[in-house]
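TASK: fixed-backbone design
INPUT:
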């Protein structure tokens, strides 16, 4: 196999796919034509190509950059192989979800729009009605598509000779998923007593209910934090990001290769996103300023991805610029995102006089996410493991694991829909742990207002320069010498009082 040609072809594929993604979701183009892009690069994901990359990965046993590159390329090839096998069902699912509407009372609500309606619904009874209709639709109208997607993923792993989809992901991504699940289980156990104590006052203050009354249908409303809207005006959104970057010595408006897409278009995604078409050199940060805390959090998260991509060393090999451990890019995204819940940043950048309510809410929300993803990885290992037995058992296991993690009665209906492809949940979990280390490192070196320090910006740019060459363990080892363990988030939550 001509490895250089394969790499070149792979990079073109990602560039074309990203450009199509950007144009569609920025509202510049109605259709979303990925079929033709796959067809133009069909050689990348043929069985023989995947096997050739796999042989390369098996041949290089000596640690170093060549080994990293081979493993990253294998992950890319395998992901594309699964992508080819599932793209028809993905498209069908997207069509079905987009066309589906649920009936709540006299209203028809779009299936995809329903969580937003739920988040803006002040009446708990109506939130529960929406939830019921959503769950029924998920199970009865979309369930067969979700099931087919998982079955095809599993079939791919078997075809390629892995004992299970989980084994395949573990090898290709180089992540010890079982060790991670051990750490998250310890976190779930060690934080169990504090969890209701932290949530109770926040639920009372924002929703007027106690922890024991909380239902899954209330979570979108709780996260929405409508009472905070006044602190997060739409008019300040893009400037607050640009000013924050300037504090770090980065002039976003003068940054080559970064396009801030803030224009309003009818079909533009309401949620901010980052589209790294070329890394570095052509990165889009797409925003439709709406206002509210969540809008800020999303823009800052995507802004973190954008700065990472834009600052990658153009001389790095393709694999380090475009592939590798996504926990790394997520770490930078969460680092910047978490500024919008940082008391220092809230007072300096948004002039919030007393940020304590905002900080307490953010802590409760983060607690829910950490426990939810801890439950998710345990479940996804069951779902995708070699010993998975029967859909009925898995649905019960899903409800049990998530219900226990969150202290809420959890439905079985979403057990095949609420699944991250390729164990992306592991990237989030690792990113939360690594971000905690990186944030405390920056605070130690540059003080609580580290985001105002050009030197801190220099440190970040140095890290961003490296793309995703190092994985999360290696990066932390190089930065502080510490060992990556999810337990660090428990200390960060500061549950002492
Ligand atoms: Zn992200």
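OUTPUT:
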């Amino acid at each position: 196999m001509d490895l250089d040609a394969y790499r070149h072809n792979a990079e073109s594929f990602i560039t074309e796919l990203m450009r199509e993604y950007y144009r569609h979701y920025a509202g510049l183009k109605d259709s979303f034509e990925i079929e033709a892009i796959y067809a133009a690069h069909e050689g990348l994901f043929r069985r023989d190509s995947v096997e050739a990359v796999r042989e390369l990965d098996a041949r290089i046993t000596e640690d170093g950059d060549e080994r990293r590159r081979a493993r990253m390329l294998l992950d890319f090839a395998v992901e594309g192989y699964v992508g080819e096998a599932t793209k028809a069902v993905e498209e069908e699912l997207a069509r079905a979800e987009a066309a589906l509407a649920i009936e709540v009372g006299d209203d028809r609500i779009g299936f995809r729009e329903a969580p937003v309606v739920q988040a803006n619904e002040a009446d708990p009874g109506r939130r529960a009605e929406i939830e019921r209709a959503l769950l029924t639709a998920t199970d009865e109208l979309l369930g067969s598509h979700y099931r087919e997607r998982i079955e095809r993923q599993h079939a791919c792993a078997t075809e390629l000779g892995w004992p299970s989809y989980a084994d395949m992901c573990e090898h290709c991504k180089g992540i010890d998923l079982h060790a991670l699940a051990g750490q998250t289980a310890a976190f779930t156990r060690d934080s169990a007593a504090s969890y209701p104590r932290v949530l109770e006052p926040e639920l009372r203050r924002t929703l007027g209910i106690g922890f024991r009354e909380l239902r899954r249908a209330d979570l979108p409303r709780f996260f929405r934090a409508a009472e905070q809207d006044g602190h997060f005006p739409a008019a300040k959104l893009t400037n607050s990001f640009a000013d924050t970057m300037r504090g770090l010595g980065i002039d976003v408006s003068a940054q080559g290769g970064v396009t801030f897409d803030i224009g309003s278009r009818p079909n533009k995604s309401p949620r901010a996103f980052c589209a790294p078409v070329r890394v570095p050199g052509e990165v889009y940060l797409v925003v439709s300023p709406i206002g509210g805390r969540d809008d800020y959090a999303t823009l800052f998260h995507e802004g973190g991805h954008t700065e990472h991509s834009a600052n990658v060393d153009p001389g790095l090999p393709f694999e380090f610029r475009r592939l590798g451990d996504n926990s790394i890019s997520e770490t930078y995204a969460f680092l910047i995102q978490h500024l919008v819940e940082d008391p220092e940043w809230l007072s300096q950048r948004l002039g919030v006089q007393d940020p304590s309510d905002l900080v307490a809410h953010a802590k409760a929300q983060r607690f829910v996410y950490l426990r939810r993803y801890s439950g998710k990885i345990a479940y996804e290992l069951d779902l995708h493991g070699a010993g998975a037995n029967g859909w009925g058992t898995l649905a019960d296991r899903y409800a049990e694991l998530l219900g226990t993690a969150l202290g809420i009665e959890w439905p079985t209906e979403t057990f095949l829909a609420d699944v991250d492809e390729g164990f992306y949940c592991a990237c989030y979990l690792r990113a939360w742990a690594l971000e905690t280390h990186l944030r405390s490192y920056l605070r130690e070196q540059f003080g609580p207002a580290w985001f105002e320090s050009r030197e801190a910006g220099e440190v970040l740019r140095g890290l961003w320069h490296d793309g995703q060459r190092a994985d999360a363990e290696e990066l932390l080892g190089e930065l502080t010498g510490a060992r990556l363990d999810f337990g660090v988030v428990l200390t960060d939550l500061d549950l002492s009082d």
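COMMENT: DSSP finds 21 helices and five strands in the chain.
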